[in-house]
Design a protein that fits this description.
This protein is mainly alpha-helical and about 150 residues long. It contains eight helices and five strands; from the N terminus they run E-H-H-E-H-H-E-H-E-H-E-H-H.
């Protein structure tokens, strides 16, 4: 299964040391170079940078898309990278929290989930103990997931 993640799911799980949820659910995930730039190179949050860099060495693969699709909506560079990489790799699943980008991806024929949906699935599979506890951890850091 080819899974590509946008920045906000990575940021949320990296900040609470839970990036391994991706690994447990999918084995490996891909991110475009634009998401890498946003979450690592441009971040001033050391725990986020360190956790993502560690995951890149184990189960996150960074790639530069070759597709340059003209999108109907105005979406940020990270989201454009996710969708372009999805075209390149013929992705099975995209992880995107932003509604506008999710809608764009769905209209282009991609299957899309958000971080909250993944966490609920992780709870159902016993990967995490409590979806609500994870939400509380995120909210303590002022990270709020769309439901």
């Amino acid at each position: 299964m080819i899974v590509i993640s946008n920045s906000s799911p990575l940021i949320a799980l990296a900040r609470i040391n839970r990036l391994t949820v991706f690994q447990a659910l999918f084995g490996q995930i891909y991110i475009p170079n634009t998401v890498y730039q946003e979450t690592v190179l441009q971040s001033n949050v050391s725990v986020q940078r360190e956790n993502i860099l560690q995951a890149i060495n184990t189960f996150i693969v960074v790639e530069t898309p070759t597709t340059d699709h003209p999108f109907r909506r105005t979406i940020d560079f990270g989201e454009q990278g996710v969708l372009n990489l999805a075209f390149d790799k013929q992705a099975d699943l995209l992880i995107i929290d932003e509604k506008k980008a999710r809608n764009e991806a769905k209209e282009l024929g991609f299957r899309v989930v958000n971080t909250a949906t993944l966490l609920k699935r992780a709870e159902n599979l016993g990967i995490i103990i409590s979806y609500h506890d994870v939400l509380t951890e995120l909210e303590m850091l002022r990270i709020y997931l769309p439901h």
